[in-house]
Amino acid sequence: MDYVNPEFAWPQINTLEKKCTEQGFELKARFPVYPKFIKMINHNLKEKLKNFPMMKTMLGGNFGDDFANFKFGFKT
Question: Which ranges in the chain belong to alpha helices (H)?
Fold first, then answer.
């Protein structure tokens, strides 16, 4: 399930990555929050989220090259 948009089922990540690669694309993460809204996140919530890899990047304000090179770590 795509927790960002629960109305659409999330395909198997490895299958999706393979299909993207076959078509010459690279599967990359997308942040569910626009960078300009990160500063609005409550401090207590930031503390709870800071250990998630994607959140570390977001909370650190690294949306440039770090975001462009961010890859999912899911492999089976």
Answer: 13-22, 35-38, 43-49, 53-59, 65-69
